[in-house]
Structure to design on (375 residues):
C-alpha cells in the first residue's frame, strides 16, 4: 500500500491579513492599485481556512494573467517565445502551436472563474488542503458559482504534494503553468554557495545605503513603482501586473508586505524589493532596480540576497517564483513545475473537454519544454 504523501502546512493565511487585503481592494478602485487588472475581491471562509477570492468573467478580457488564463496561456506564452531567439525554428513552431491551441483555451471558458487564494501576485502560496476540505471547497463554490470554473494557482510538487493529491481526488485538473524555483530552510542544508557568499559580501560593502522596512517615505513609494516598472514591465514584459505606487504604499502601510531597498547616500532609491511572508513561506512579489546603472553594481543580486537572508534568518520556505533560472540554481534553489488546479465538473461538456485536452497538451508538450529550457 502506498504511503500517504506528507506535506508541511507552511502557509497560514492569517484572518487579519486576509481581511486587510480584501478591504484594500474594496476601498480603492482596482485599477488604482494594479493598473492592468479587472477583478472583484471577496473573502472566502471554509473549514477554519480564510482565503481571498477573486471573481472574473470573460468580458473582463483583456486582463492581467493573474486573473485571466487566456492571458497566461496565450498572450504570456507567445511573449515567452522571445527566449528562443537562438532557436528560430523552434520559436516558429511554438508560435504556431500556441496559435493552434488558442481556440482550445478560449473554449475552456477559464476566464470566467472564481479563483481561491488569489493574493494577486504571480505566486500565491496555498495552505494545506486535505481531501474533506477540498471536497467542501468544491461543493461550496460550485453551488455559489454554477457557471464559473474554480481555480487555485501556484501549486507545486515540492510545497504542495498532499494538496495536489487531495484536489485531484476531488476531480480537479492540473494545468501546468511554469517552472519555478524553491529555496528551502537551510538549517539542515549544505553551506552557502559561492555566489551566495559573493552576494552577501557585495551587500555588506555596497556604497549604497540600505533602506529598512520602517524607512520608506511617500517619495520612495513613487520611486519603487518606477524601479519595478523598469525591470518587470520594460525589461521583461508589459503583461506583468502593473503595481502602482499607491498599491505599494497601501500594501506596506497595512502590513501585508514588508519593503527593503538601497538608495544613493541621502538620495533616491536605486533598488527595491517587497516581501510577502505568509506563515512559514516567503515570496518576493516586488523587485525593481535602476536598469541604467552598471550591471557590475549588482543591484538585482543584492535584492535577491536581502530576500534569501530574510528567509534564512527566519527559517522560511522561500518560493523564488519563475525566471532567472541559472541565477537561482547557483544560489541553492531547486526547480519545480507549478500548476493551476481547475475544477470544471459542473460546467457544460464543451468546456470540460477543452480543459481536459489542455491538461493533456500541457503535460505532453508544455512540461518537457519548461524543464528543457527552464522557463
Amino acid at each position: 500500500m502506498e504511503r500517504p504523501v506528507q506535506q508541511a502546512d507552511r502557509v497560514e493565511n492569517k484572518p487579519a491579513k486576509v481581511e486587510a487585503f480584501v478591504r484594500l481592494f474594496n476601498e480603492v478602485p482596482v485599477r488604482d492599485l494594479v493598473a492592468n487588472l479587472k477583478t472583484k475581491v471577496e473573502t472566502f471562509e471554509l473549514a477554519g481556512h480564510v482565503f481571498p477570492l477573486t471573481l472574473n468573467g470573460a468580458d473582463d478580457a483583456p486582463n492581467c494573467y493573474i486573473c485571466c488564463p487566456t492571458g497566461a496561456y496565450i498572450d504570456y506564452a507567445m511573449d515567452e517565445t522571445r527566449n528562443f531567439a537562438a532557436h528560430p525554428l523552434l520559436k516558429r513552431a511554438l508560435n504556431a502551436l500556441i496559435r493552434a491551441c488558442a481556440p482550445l483555451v478560449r473554449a475552456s471558458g477559464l476566464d470566467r472563474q472564481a479563483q481561491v487564494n488569489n493574493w494577486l501576485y504571480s505566486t500565491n502560496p496555498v495552505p494545506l488542503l486535505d481531501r474533506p476540505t477540498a471536497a467542501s471547497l468544491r461543493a461550496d463554490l460550485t453551488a455559489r458559482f454554477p457557471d464559473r470554473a474554480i481555480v487555485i494557482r501556484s501549486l507545486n510538487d515540492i510545497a504542495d504534494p498532499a494538496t495536489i493529491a487531495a484536489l485531484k481526488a476531488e476531480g480537479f485538473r492540473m494545468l501546468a503553468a511554469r517552472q519555478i524555483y524553491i529555496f528551502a530552510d537551510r538549517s539542515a542544508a549544505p553551506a552557502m554557495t559561492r555566489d551566495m557568499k559573493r552576494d552577501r559580501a557585495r551587500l555588506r560593502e555596497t556604497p549604497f545605503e540600505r533602506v529598512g522596512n520602517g524607512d520608506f517615505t511617500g517619495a520612495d513609494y513613487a520611486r519603487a513603482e518606477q524601479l519595478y516598472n523598469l525591470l518587470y514591465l520594460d525589461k521583461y514584459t508589459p503583461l506583468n501586473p502593473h503595481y502602482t505606487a499607491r498599491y505599494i504604499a497601501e500594501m506596506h502601510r497595512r502590513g501585508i508586505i514588508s519593503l527593503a531597498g538601497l538608495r544613493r547616500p541621502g538620495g533616491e532609491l536605486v533598488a527595491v524589493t517587497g516581501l510577502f511572508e505568509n506563515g512559514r513561506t516567503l515570496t518576493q512579489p516586488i523587485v525593481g532596480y535602476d536598469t541604467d546603472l552598471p550591471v557590475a553594481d549588482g543591484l538585482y543580486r543584492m535584492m535577491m540576497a536581502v530576500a534569501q537572508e530574510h528567509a534564512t534568518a527566519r527559517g522560511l520556505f522561500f518560493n523564488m517564483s519563475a525566471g532567472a533560472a541559472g541565477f537561482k540554481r547557483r544560489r541553492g534553489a531547486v526547480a519545480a513545475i507549478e500548476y493551476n488546479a481547475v475544477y470544471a465538473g459542473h460546467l457544460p461538456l464543451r468546456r470540460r473537454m477543452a480543459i481536459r485536452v489542455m491538461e493533456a497538451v500541457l503535460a505532453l508538450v508544455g512540461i518537457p519544454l519548461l524543464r528543457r529550457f527552464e522557463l
Observations:
- The chain has a mean pLDDT of 93.
- The two ends are 36 Å apart (CA to CA).
- The domain at 186-334 is CATH 3.40.630.30 (Aminopeptidase).
